[in-house]
Amino acid sequence: MATFFSDLVQFRGLFQMILVLGIGGSFPYGFHISVINYPSVHIRKFINETWIERHGSPLHPETIMLLWSFIVSVYGIGGLLGSLCCGYLTTKYRKKKCQMGTNLIMLVAALLMAFSKTAKSFEMILVGRFLYGIGAGFSLNIHPQYVGEISPKRLRGFTNSTVAVFLTLGKLTGQVVGLREILGSEALWPWLLASSGLSAVVQLVTLPFFPDSPSYLLIQKGNEEACRKAIRKLWGEGDHQAEIDDIMKEKAAALTGTKALRVLEVLKERSLRWQLYILLTLMTTLQLCGINAIYFYSFEVFHTAKFEEYLIPYVSLGIGLCEWLSSILCSTLIDRFGRKVLLLGGYTLMCSVLALLTMTLSLQHQFFWMHYFSVILIFLFVVFYGIGPSGATVSVMVEIFSQSFRPSAFMIVGCINWTGLFVLGMIFPAIVDNLGAFCFLIFVGILALSALVIYLYLPETKGKSIMEIKAEFNKLNFGKRDISATENNLPKEQLFCTKL
After folding, report:
1. Is there a contact between 342 and 330 (Cβ–Cβ < 8 Å)?
2. SS3 helix, strand, coil % of the chain, rounded to 5?
3. Phi and psi dihedrals of 400, rounded to 5?
């Protein structure tokens, strides 16, 4: 505890910047994911009333549902577009400037949402949701890269895992303000959708007072004095020469003046082969680990467990609270136990819980107490997810790529994330209809396979510099015979200059 408070004093600039980045970074993504479900009835009614006022006749219920589905899914389309543009724009204009531009997009979207009912235009909701998606696509790429680059080596796990803390806080906040007693009523739903504009305002006002990341300033701008100044502002006074030396080594490896690799070049580069395999494994597992299925199934489980209808939203709020608290716990454990341990432990425990949940849901009509056991298992699954994959995944993704490759790598991350979100939303209801509770067995298999891959091929990144992590992956990428040719970052690194 004493160490924590001493770090809080010394690194107060870092913690302040983490707070600012989180408020306008992954927080809005989590908020928009959860909040859209609450005003669904009011928005569908608004669409029909608007149509009647314009054309004198109501819309067919299927058409209303189609428009509503498009409003929900267009967020994913915007997110994918934002992710695709993010890598190029952050390389050209720097992350700080791009994040401030993202805030302006979010504010425009919030204004469209706020005045859609007054203007009697459901099209404004559609456009606003699309713009929210673009902004979230940018933020979800920029936020983890930025926090990973501003932190010292010994706090890197903690700072990276705060991405999950703010994302789950966004989910929880969306659940809270979406309650009918707050902003989820028929009169206030436009302000519910617009309320995330507040986080954009906070970041837009405060972010200019913080520096760019030290690694960006040294590697891409070549400004050592600005790098040292940024480090002092974020990490306080002290001897940070070892960290600066690590950044200098990374700069030397990337070759001075070399532009960051584009996505196709990253995909073709042999020295990044296993980093990309790990990236694909982690992101696919994060999408297909079953957390979305748990949220989907929780309402049915709570209903069959005889919870009163009006209590179910509040019980579901408990799930969001559990996920947030467990992500905070992950941020305190990750630098003690390491990323690999949390991932393996999380995958294994989640796999076990889903197997038990499949059994309890299958037997719930034979034993009345199975309903309550299922509720306990749902909460346990969310806790294990928050402590393990939720925070540790982000940390690994940031740490296995160097400054030159990170923008393109996170563009790939964004594409997997947003495409997976869209595809899962389209096919999961059909899977549930056909398999019922046995749908969880699919996620059991994915978690087991991912645990095996992580156990065999992911090196522990805790406490290691980027170059040390790269040396570990070189053993996989080149084999033992080629390690000596790549350790000094000479022949193989010359390939980094190649352009398509």
Report:
1. yes
2. 80, 0, 20
3. -90, -5
